[in-house]
Amino acid sequence: MADILNRSETGLSENLGPARLPCRIQLRIPCFCAVGTNAMWPFARRAEPDLVVDRMISLGALCEVAYQVRRLARSERAYPFDWWDTPLSGVLKVLQSGASEIFAAHHIVKLPDVSGRRPAFYSRLTGTAHQHEFHGGENFLDFDETEIGRRLTPKYEALLARLVSDCASGTTLFVRQRRPDYDLEGVALEAALDELHAALAGFSADPRLLLLDYPPVASRPWLIEARVSRYRDWNDLGSRRGWNEVFRRHRIVCRSSGERFGVDDFKESFPAPASLGERFRRGVRRHKELRDRRRLTVMR
């Protein structure tokens, strides 16, 4: 073996031909073990990150962002926008208004099950839609608007307080993904981004914003733009490969919190199938929804 290493360093054998390893595998191996030589480590070093953050927080639009951000940050910590359907303009209104106003009875509109979609309720103030606020065994459509507000206001007051407290130190990466059917564009988007950053800077020590799938906007020192590719692993919670690719390409790293993300708090929002037959029927419906959605995406 030592003879092979020595010959590979010169690149010539005794017969003045290329040095060869057994099994017909040609490989030049630099002698990084030798003492007193200018040896080089043969393996590529990992690239240094461009941005190291202390936490990553979803600003919507959908629960895909929260799921992927928690997975990548290895965190189980919840924040206000995790499981909402939130327009960009609604993010600013939530930060300005507070939970008691968002869930005031006169702002709540219940949306029953329509065309196979899960029932939800809507806040007129923020434009947010809520599907996952109650355990799957509870039919919140039976609650009056006052009861919905009474149940949710303390929870979101605590989550908003956590948001402010956690972001008071370190660097926070806020992540926002575009909702094509209703999100802002052009001049309105530019103005909304500046307003949003001003609001985030009001309580966050070092806010950064990762803006996903939006049309190009003016460059800003605190802004990163990217697009998430939809690979074959894509589902309602996004493409794991696509999200990994974004964070590798932009070399973004989140300091580990020492926790591991579990999806249990997400799954408990859905009612358990009553039987194997019902489980099968739901799976068929879900498959049809995803197929139709992909067809619409291709047509666009």
Keyphrases for this structure?
2 domains; 300 residues; 10 strands; alpha/beta; globular; four-stranded antiparallel sheet; four-stranded parallel sheet; 9 helices
Describe this structure in words.
It is built from nine helices and ten strands. The longest helix is centred in the C-terminal third of the chain and has 24 residues, at 276-299. It has two domains: 1-45, no CATH class; 51-270, no CATH class. The strands form three sheets. It has a four-stranded parallel sheet with strand order 2-7-8-9, with helices on both faces. Helices cover 37% and strands 13% of the residues. It has helices spanning 2-10, 63-73, 88-97, 99-102, 145-166, 186-201, 240-249, 264-267, 276-299, and strands spanning 51-53, 55-58, 84-85, 108-111, 120-123, 129-130, 171-177, 206-212, 223-226, 252-254. The protein is globular. Helix 3 (88-97) packs parallel to helix 6. It is of the alpha/beta class and 300 residues long.
Topology:
Blueprint: H1 2-10, E1 51-53, E2 55-58, H2 63-73, E3 84-85, H3 88-97, H4 99-102, E4 108-111, E5 120-123, E6 129-130, H5 145-166, E7 171-177, H6 186-201, E8 206-212, E9 223-226, H7 240-249, E10 252-254, H8 264-267, H9 276-299
Parallel strand pairs: 1-10, 2-7, 7-8, 8-9
Antiparallel strand pairs: 3-6, 4-5, 5-6
